[in-house]
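Q: I have 529 residues here and want to know how they pack in 3D. Can you give me a structure?
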Amino acid sequence: MKSILNQPGMKSEKLRVAAIDLGTNSFHMIIVEESPQKGIVEIDRVKDMICIGRGSISTKMLNEEAMQSGIAALKNFLVLARQHGVAQENILAFATSAIREAKNQDDFLRRVREETGLKVKVISGREEAEFIYYGVRSAVKIGKSADLLFDIGGGSVEFVLVNQKGVQLLESRKIGVARMCERFVASEPISTHNIHLLEQFFSAEMVSAVEKASQLKVSRAIASSGTAQNIARMISSMNGRENETSLNNSVFTRKEFKALYQAVIPLGGAERKKLTGLDEKRVDLIVPGLILVDMIFKLFNLQEIVIADSALREGMVLHYLKHRIASGIRRGEDDELDIRRESVYELGFRCNWTCDHAEHIARLTLQLFDKLEPLHHLEKSYRELLEYAALLHNVGAFISISSHHKHGQYIILNGELRGFSPWEIEIIAHVVRYHRKSPPSERHTAYSLLKPAHKRAVDVLSGMLRISNGLERGHRKNIQKISVELKERNITLRLKSRCEPDIEIWAADLLKPWLETVLDKTITIEANQ
């Protein structure tokens, strides 16, 4: 299950909402539950490649077969939503590019309403871009400098430019991959002439977004949608990382993308079907998708693209809940979202962890990080990861006490924490894995595959977490402050406590050897006199 957002001030009762996106190429539905502390948790999601826009790009008419398939898919979606306990009034349905442009949209929407009871709202391109923005910012932390957000759909591509002052551009362009495939891909493999036509068309359609991005000095792009995720998955496969559990916050570089582009574009459809990582239903659409992303790299002068796995549907849910409970929300929609911290706390609450115990260990651990900085020399970014590892060190107890360090590693790796890159999640998970029992070892496969710099970070951070875990052995918040004295061969930790810290010193002494090894120092722990 994936958590999206926890809004302060939400009402205490649980609420289930379903959001259906009637896209040009596919219909999607996400079902979520909002509850206190745990935030918004994904219950289920489903996709059906309806291709409602098939043949309608040029005719502006939805064909009968596509409409029947679409209605059948929506009936199945509604059955699933009801089985998950979603009330009819909490089922949202929005239609985008193909239906938005169809001359017979009224006929299709009337039939949907009569056969399913579902009222579908057709949204404008600008509204679509706004919903995508809500969704993306719940999955990827917006940077301090300007970011380009883009979502590649079947009929349209949405562009959002955002900086610390908020949204600076919301734009929808009719350059979706299904539309471009129908219009420009006339041969297998695609001809050089048609590639040039596509490039020229993309350039003309993206002029205003490129100019605005140049003014804002955009430094990176964040991409959502199935096409972008499929490109990222293919790149991961080429680099031997096809087993990654989540693509959210993963990054592919211009160089990595170019290697994929040059390998795929010359291939015909039959050859593309054999490619690892390519969704069989995107075999044709991936060609204009690759050419589009190539032009985005060039025109916006980007060096890398970040993947977001939340977009339109998640944005629909967030927008709906925001307005449904507006009187209870204390935070404005444009206030900065600390999605990383929110996501960590939501995962903790989902695992029924003891919040105050976790927070106390985190405070002690950060004191050690700060006081030992002259010895470990780790960058400040690792301090944040250490805090989150300390907060989540005990989540594995949700499964079993005896091996909760191992269970905790699994939960964190598969908990779909938002706002973190895959390598950051790996470090948090490994620090939790080694906060007790055996220390890091090359015999452990996952640890052995880490980069050398990340191994050292895990070594140091887990060593500090082991000691702070010992200092809270009695779960009584006895240790209030740690002062540190550094000598050439020795580190002395002096503890300020509310009462005699015998049990805490005993426990920490048992757990200190790993940090002594890592820092090559003897550690003495004593009560403050």
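Q: Anything worth noting?
A: The chain has a mean pLDDT of 91. Residues 64-83 form the longest helix (20 residues).
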